Inverse folding.
């Protein structure tokens, strides 16, 4: 339906929130003359038409205006900015045209959010934009052209902004160094030229930057991802590259870097993806690359590297892909470790490589020298001496064996932090769990039991023992090991080790979560989560799913997301667990399984009816969980019968009856202040419903979900003065 003209007679109206509905038609002009109006939120509808530009708007108290994700056309009226109390202005994803209105930004001293992305605004950025006070500014894919004005550096409150997908040219202004609060920006897919600014430590790809990477960059010890690919950077890779101790991805491909690969690169123990392809690198491949124990992907193709391929690379247990083609390498291609799985494409167009015939290279010729009589006589004399020496050394080793055992546990824990699995025997697990006693039992599930344990070094662990009564459950163990082995994220439960005793015993040793499961906290009378704790937990879960779906080398589908599989550590940080039925999407974006494996109530429709598994199924389960955590109602609750489900219950409550579905404990924890919560719950439930769309294609992706919840959290903290 549409908004009736008569709504303009509600002269005391302060809040009009109609977001996430199917309203259509145009906006009544009288709506923009309600002087008491504070929040006008109409996003995610089908409104169309123009916003009357000749109206004399009278909105002196307006704080929020959200018209994004509709079908509005025409110019953005200048008069709409006359509200001096304006905090949020969101007009993204419409069909507005024309130019940016010439307004006095300095009068909007409270404005924090300005969103204009995905409209048809064909103009340059006015110099007056430097007077704006916003801390978030988005204008992606708007057709903006010209240079970024120097006055941009005056936006001292700016935390994040994005101008990607426009026609901006010229250099990045040197005044960017004055944006001291800036945390993130995106200028990708423009026509920027010029050199890299020394003061900035991150820059987006797909531009034409052509200077050296500043030396100060290599001191960023906590940076996680760096992608400088497809630019024109020159210079050398310094020894200081080894300072990037937390880095996971380093992509410098498609530049003009000319130097040896420094041996200090082996210090990057956390690095998973290294791409130095299409540069002018020379010299040999350092053997220290074998120390990069987390490496999954290595691309050194299209350079001028010489020498042999180091045998040390055989020790990279997690290496899944390597590309050394188009270099000047020679000698034998290693054939151990991960090299057993690589194909000829990884080594083509080199100078003189040899090795296994399956790699389409000639076999290596090994010269056998004849042993002279003198050498044979020498060996007869030397062997007894060597044997005696070995015996003496063996005695010394036996004497020091106890001392080595004392240090073994500390060494294994150190290796574990580098991604190398610790070795824990079945006997150690029996001791740690008191013989898998009932007093150590944490819980039982469909695939086995979980016990609390204490290792000899004092570390508390959770031991998941797989029930091997069926072949299916045995396969579950292999699936979980395979899924979790290469996954490392702060919001995933860490696998410390696995233990397999032939076919009789299989277990996973995981870090112990002292606060138990989210299900326990939701439904126990002894625990209660406040609003911010619940929001933080769902942000943590969203971050974990975003990593599984988009951050790992192979997308992983969890398949069984529910509160029982979300654990809480001592700081109430959420960790997603239980990958017993996880699926690796290495052959496409979806798979079909004839057997239903997930939990009823959290199943996506396509999974329950057709057995289709995809990352969108996890998004659906997440949406159900997001509704459940704020209502304290399971999707299998007895109240949900016939046509009534958790999803329809929430949908029918919006926007006027949200209070009736919320967990009453939220209001008790908040001192009975309902407005503080209701202001944000409409957005949260709207997000959850978008996750639970019937069509998988219509559901959000987890990156957008995470960003939306973080934005809501920012608003919550801002409203509370935190």
């Amino acid at each position: 339906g549409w908004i009736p003209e008569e709504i303009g007679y509600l002269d005391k109206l302060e809040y009009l929130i109609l977001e996430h509905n199917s309203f259509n038609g145009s906006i009544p002009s009288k709506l923009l003359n309600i002087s008491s109006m504070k929040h006008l939120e109409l996003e995610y509808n089908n409104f169309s038409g123009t916003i009357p530009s000749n109206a004399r708007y009278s909105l002196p108290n307006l704080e929020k205006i959200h018209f994004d994700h509709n079908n509005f056309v025409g110019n953005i009226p200048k008069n709409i900015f006359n509200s001096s109390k304006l905090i949020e202005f969101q007009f993204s994803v419409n069909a507005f045209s024309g130019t940016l209105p010439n307004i006095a930004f300095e009068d909007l001293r409270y404005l924090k959010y300005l969103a204009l992305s995905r409209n048809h605004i064909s103009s340059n950025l006015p110099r007056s934009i430097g007077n704006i006070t916003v801390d978030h500014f988005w204008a992606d894919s708007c057709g903006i052209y010209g240079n970024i004005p120097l006055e941009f550096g005056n936006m001292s409150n700016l935390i994040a902004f994005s101008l990607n997908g426009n026609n901006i040219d010229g250099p990045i202004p040197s005044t960017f160094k004055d944006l001291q609060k800036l945390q993130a920006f995106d200028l990708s897919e423009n026509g920027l030229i010029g050199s890299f600014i020394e003061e900035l430590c991150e820059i987006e790809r797909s531009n034409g930057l052509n200077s050296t990477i500043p030396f100060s960059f290599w001191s960023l010890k906590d940076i996680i991802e760096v992608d400088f690919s497809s630019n024109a950077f020159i210079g050398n890779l310094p020894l200081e590259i080894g300072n990037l101790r937390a880095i996971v991805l380093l992509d410098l491909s498609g530049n003009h870097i000319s130097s040896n690969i420094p041996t200090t690169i082996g210090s990057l123990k956390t690095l998973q993806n290294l791409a130095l392809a299409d540069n002018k690198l020379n010299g040999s491949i350092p053997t220290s690359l074998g120390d990069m124990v987390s490496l999954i992907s290595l691309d050194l193709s299209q350079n001028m590297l010489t020498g042999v391929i180091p045998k040390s690379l055989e020790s990279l247990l997690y290496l899944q892909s390597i590309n050394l083609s188009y270099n000047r390498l020679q000698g034998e291609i290693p054939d151990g470790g991960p090299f057993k799985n690589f194909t000829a494409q990884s080594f083509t167009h080199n100078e003189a490589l040899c090795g296994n015939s399956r790699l389409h290279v000639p076999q290596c010729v090994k010269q056998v020298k004849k042993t002279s009589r003198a050498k044979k006589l020498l060996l007869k004399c030397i062997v007894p001496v060597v044997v005696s020496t070995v015996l003496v050394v063996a005695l010394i080793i036996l004497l020091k064996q106890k001392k080595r055992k004392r240090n073994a546990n500390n060494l294994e824990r150190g290796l574990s932090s580098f991604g190398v699995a610790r070795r824990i025997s079945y006997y150690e697990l029996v001791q740690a769990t008191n013989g898998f006693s009932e007093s150590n039992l944490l819980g039982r599930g469909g695939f086995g039991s979980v016990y609390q344990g204490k290792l000899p070094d004092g570390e508390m662990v959770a031991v998941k023992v797989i029930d091997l009564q069926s072949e299916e459950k045995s396969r579950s163990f292999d699936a979980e090991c395979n899924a979790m082995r290469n996954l490392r994220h702060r919001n995933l439960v860490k696998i410390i080790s696995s233990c397999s005793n032939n076919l009789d015993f299989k277990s996973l040793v995981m870090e112990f979560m002292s606060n138990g499961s989210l299900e326990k906290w939701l439904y126990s009378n002894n625990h209660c989560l406040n609003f911010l704790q619940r929001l933080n937990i769902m942000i943590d879960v969203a971050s974990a799913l975003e990593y599984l779906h988009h951050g790992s080398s192979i997308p992983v589908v969890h398949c069984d997301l529910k509160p029982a599989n979300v654990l809480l550590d001592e700081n109430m940080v959420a960790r997603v667990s239980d990958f017993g039925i996880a699926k690796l999407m290495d052959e496409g974006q979806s798979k079909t399984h004839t057997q239903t494996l997930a939990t009823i109530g959290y199943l996506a429709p396509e999974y329950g009816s057709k057995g289709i598994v995809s990352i969108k199924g996890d998004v659906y389960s997440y949406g159900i969980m997001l509704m459940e955590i704020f209502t304290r109602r399971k999707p299998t609750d007895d109240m949900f019968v016939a046509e009534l489900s958790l999803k329809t219950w929430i949908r029918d409550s919006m926007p006027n009856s949200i209070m009736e579905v919320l967990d009453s404990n939220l209001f008790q924890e908040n001192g009975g202040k309902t407005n503080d919560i209701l202001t944000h719950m409409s957005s949260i439930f709207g997000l959850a419903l978008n996750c639970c769309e019937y069509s998988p294609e219509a559901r959000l992706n987890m990156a957008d979900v995470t960003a939306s919840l973080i934005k809501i959290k920012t608003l919550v903290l801002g409203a509370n003065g935190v």
Q: What stands out?
A: The CA atoms of residues 198 and 214 lie 6 Å apart. Residues 373-417 form the longest helix (45 residues). The chain is about 25% helix and 20% strand. Residues 518-719 form a domain with the Transferase(Phosphotransferase); domain 1 fold (CATH 1.10.510.10).
